[in-house]
Amino acid sequence: MKIHVLGSAAGGGFPQWNCNCANCDGLRSGTIRASRRTQSSIALSADGGDWIVFNTSPDILQQIRAFPALQPGRRLRDTGIRAIVLIDAQIDHTTGLYMLRESSKPLDIWCTEQVRDDLRNGNPIFDILEHYCKVTWHVMPIDGSGFEIEGIGDLHFAAVPLRSKAPPYSPHRENPHPGDNVGITIRDRRTARTAFYAPGLADIEPHVWHAMRSADCVLVDGTFWTHDEMIRLGVGTKTAVEIGHLPQSGPGGMIEHLSRLPAQTRKLLIHINNTNPILDEDSLQRAELTARNIEVCHDGLDIQL
Ligand code: MLT
Ligand code: MN
Ligand code: ZN
């Protein structure tokens, strides 16, 4: 399978429009070695023809312009996007649906019932799109049965529930339900190779560890380096876990978990917040990741599995 990173940043992108932190300022002024990043999304394909987009970011039009495989190539109105998979109902993962409203067919969207409810009630994108291209909702099971996407027979998808956070507008924000957030294992039947994608992940429960342990490649939550990053910088009042993200450093952090994976597992961080020191390619934190064979996703990264 082919994985193309459309957007590697967390909500807000990098640099964030209103942020003057060392990273955002350093990138604008050219004083640090770092690259711009759009908001959280990947595209995945078995054959390079039909693509599944995981999460639709507010930056999706820019991401499509930068990736010819998603552009119209066969008919007057056309797209390489065969279907959309949503891992949660957060703004940075769903707002791009509005940008796809010119679609000549209803958008085929796979998400859980909980995510569908948030996208019909709290943030009624699905209802608004009924006035444009419409949406065909496909229920994403989280009972381990997995799912298939018509026309993409070579790939098998299996979602697991995660502890992260429903969006601030959701009635589930402080009252979590299984299905508010998922991680997804994608398996290529032809090669038996698997990837695990979980850009929002606050707790590595045993079933999540099992999914990570079984994958050839993991793309996991790279939002924050430290648990109190936002508080220390004076840009927020909540810890990483309180907003649904396991930090990389410290006891029980993401690095500790990734270091326990088999040596041959490809390990990548994705959904990186603009405050995270790993964005500075010359930082000590980035060097620590490199020493541990952990990669930092950048926009446009191609992974062949
Ligand atoms: C998150 O990942 O915590 C959210 O997407 C933040 C946001 O709403 O931008
Ligand atoms: Mn996010
Ligand atoms: Zn910043």
Automatic annotation (TrEMBL):
Gene Ontology biological process terms in this record: pyrroloquinoline quinone biosynthetic process
Pathway-wise, it operates in: Cofactor biosynthesis; pyrroloquinoline quinone biosynthesis
Which ranges carry the Metallo-beta-lactamase domain? 51-272
- Could you list this entry's UniProt keywords, alphabetically sorted: PQQ biosynthesis, Transport
**What InterPro entries does the annotation carry?**
Metallo-B-lactamas, PQQ_synth_PqqB, RibonucZ/Hydroxyglut_hydro
Tell me which Gene3D superfamilies the record gives: Ribonuclease Z/Hydroxyacylglutathione hydrolase-like (3.60.15.10)
What's this protein's family per the entry?
Belongs to the PqqB family.
HAMAP family from the xrefs? PQQ_syn_PqqB
Name this protein carries in UniProt: Coenzyme PQQ synthesis protein B
What organism is listed for this UniProt entry?
Answer: Thiomonas arsenitoxydans (strain DSM 22701 / CIP 110005 / 3As)
